[in-house]
């Protein structure tokens, strides 16, 4: 079978690898000039199955309402004349219940834990070095009240098989001495030993090289304008380098997946959520963290990637804008140096912004689109690095008829609509803008 994959980010490249390994002919098309140049380029660097907290939850909804009007709010929601955003918001609010939070957590953790196992096996098999660290993560809290409120979700995750154990200040400092400067501010933490950190971009480059050696063909600098549909089958994908034909197609375009799917009259409830990261070179090894850190109060994550500290955070729902807001990136940078003073060189900081594909329930969309030969692998939100290998392996098994190792229930796009796509119709070609890379 010849499969064309739209998108060469983490999701697209891992999908290409598993399909090629299964013996299929694979073509990958991407508008950028290399693999992992968008959301996978400079993400937070954490592989965190333990941190599968759906955005849609009663507690988060209350917090989001409290962030309204705050300059450094972890989430900015820019309401605009955009019916798909309104529909997404309604679906998001419908998921903000304890029952839905529990169900969505189960789905997210199922694919996240499976993915970590797949990544570890792949790492052992291929020997790809991406600055991986397997020391786990600490989710730190400054507020005793917030720490207590988080116990329910932590216990839920632990009961499902992913340890997220509460620990006190002394245990926290023993695991991560670099937090000693903030010792007086810590109310407690959750320790997740299964979590890892690593450079997603380096991993993707290394895996893409293996794919090429396996016969996968990559076409870069090739923008996709639309998909051509005939009844319930995709005929080809239209690009700036002409049409591409294949037996089966996969949309793995991150936040842009919905724009391309729409040209085939397929609705994907995925909204782009802008996030930021700052990468600074370490100048004092003893003051830099040795494990992944999640700061609950500021909603920032910290990872040590070889000789750098990367801090990522913030979320802005407001379209496909990738402009770097200096106020927000400066806040992220200053927060890192406040938590780990003297650890990194701010004068050599590199700033980045990218779009993360978010579904209303935080669960990715993996599986058939409703058309005979079109499949979807998108909507991983902030956990694309965590879920990439598992999502790709699951989709490969579904496409090739192999019994999947995990239950695929809950990942299909039909959970939002209950039926397949409507009849084929002509739609306008989307305008896909070229986001920036690092800026310093």
Report on this model:
With about 450 residues, the protein is α/β, with parallel strands linked by helices. It has a single domain, classed as 3-Layer(bba) Sandwich (FAD/NAD(P)-binding domain). It is globular, with a radius of gyration of 21 Å. It starts with a strand and ends in a 23-residue tail after the last helix.
Topology (SSEs and partners):
Blueprint (H helix, E strand, L loop, with lengths): L1 E5 L3 H12 L3 E5 L16 E2 L10 H10 L7 E3 L5 H12 L3 H29 L10 E5 L2 H6 L1 H9 L5 E3 L1 H7 L12 E5 L3 E2 L2 H14 L3 E3 L4 E7 L2 E7 L2 E3 L3 E4 L5 H6 L8 E11 L10 E4 L4 E6 L2 E10 L8 H14 L10 E9 L6 E4 L5 E5 L5 H17 L13 H4 L23
Parallel strand pairs: 1-2, 1-13, 2-9, 4-17, 5-15, 13-20
Antiparallel strand pairs: 3-8, 5-7, 6-7, 10-11, 11-12, 14-17, 14-18, 15-16, 16-17, 19-20
Helix pairs in contact: 1-8, 1-11, 4-11
């Amino acid at each position: 079978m010849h499969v064309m994959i739209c998108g060469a980010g983490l999701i697209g490249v891992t999908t290409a690898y598993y399909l090629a390994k299964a013996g299929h002919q694979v073509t990958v098309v991407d508008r950028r000039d290399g693999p992992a140049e968008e959301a996978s380029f400079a993400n937070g660097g954490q592989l965190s199955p333990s941190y599968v907290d759906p955005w849609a939850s009663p507690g988060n909804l209350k917090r989001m309402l409290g962030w309204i009007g705050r300059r450094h709010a972890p989430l900015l929601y820019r309401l605009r004349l955009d019916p798909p955003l309104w529909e997404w918001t309604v679906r998001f609010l419908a998921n903000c219940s304890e029952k839905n939070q529990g169900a969505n957590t189960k789905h997210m953790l199922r694919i996240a834990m499976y993915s970590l196992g797949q990544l570890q096996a792949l790492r052992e098999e291929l020997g790809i070095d991406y600055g991986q660290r397997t020391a786990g993560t600490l989710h730190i809290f400054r507020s005793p009240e917030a720490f207590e409120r988080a116990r329910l979700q932590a216990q839920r995750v632990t009961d499902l098989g992913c340890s997220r154990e509460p620990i006190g200040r002394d245990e926290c400092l023993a695991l991560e001495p670099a937090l000693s400067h903030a010792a007086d501010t810590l109310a407690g933490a959750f320790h997740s030993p299964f979590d890892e950190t690593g450079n997603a971009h380096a991993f993707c480059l290394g895996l893409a090289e293996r794919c090429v050696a396996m016969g996968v063909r990559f076409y870069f600098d090739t923008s996709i304008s639309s998909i051509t549909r005939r009844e319930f089958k995709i005929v080809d994908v239209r690009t700036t380098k002409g049409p591409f034909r294949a037996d089966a197609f996969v949309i793995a375009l991150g936040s842009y997946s919905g724009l391309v799917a729409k040209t085939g009259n397929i609705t994907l409830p995925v909204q782009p959520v802008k996030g930021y990261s700052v990468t600074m070179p370490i100048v004092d090894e003893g003051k830099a963290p040795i494990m992944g850190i999640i700061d609950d109060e500021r909603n920032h994550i910290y990872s040590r990637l070889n000789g750098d500290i990367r801090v990522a955070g913030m979320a802005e729902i407001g379209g496909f804008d990738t402009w770097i807001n200096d106020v927000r990136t400066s806040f992220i940078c200053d927060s890192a140096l406040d938590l780990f003073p003297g650890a990194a060189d701010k004068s050599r900081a590199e700033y980045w912004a990218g779009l993360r594909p978010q579904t209303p329930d935080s669960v990715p969309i993996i599986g058939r689109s409703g058309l005979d030969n079109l499949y979807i692998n998108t909507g991983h939100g902030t956990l694309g690095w965590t879920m990439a290998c598992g999502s790709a392996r699951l989709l490969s098994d579904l496409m090739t008829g192999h019994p999947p190792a995990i239950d695929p229930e809950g990942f299909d796009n039909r959970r939002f609509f209950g039926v397949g796509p409507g009849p084929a119709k002509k739609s306008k070609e989307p305008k896909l803008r070229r986001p920036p890379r690092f800026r310093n």
